[in-house]
Amino acid sequence: MDSNKKDLETLKVLLVHWVNHNKSHQEKFDEWVEKSSELGKEEVSEYIKKASEYIDKANEMLMEAKKNM
Questions:
Q1: How far is CA 50 from CA 11, 26, 31, 43, 53, in A?
Q2: Does residue 15 lie within any of the structural domains?
Q3: Is 62 among the domain residues?
Q4: Which of 67, 68, 29 is closest to 51 using CA atoms?
Q5: Res. 1: pLDDT tops 70
């Protein structure tokens, strides 16, 4: 397998890995959205929620990248 083909295969695997990795972090973010709200830290909760939304957008972009491989 030539170097370019190997790199393309690696990139396909990485794109999926990154999405899955992001989702695992997102689960914790979502957990802490609720916890920080319960602690009376509404502003903190909103920032974490926004970060979780950005992860959704990042994952969309990564999946679009994979579709274009």
A1: 28, 11, 13, 11, 5
A2: no
A3: yes
A4: 29
A5: no
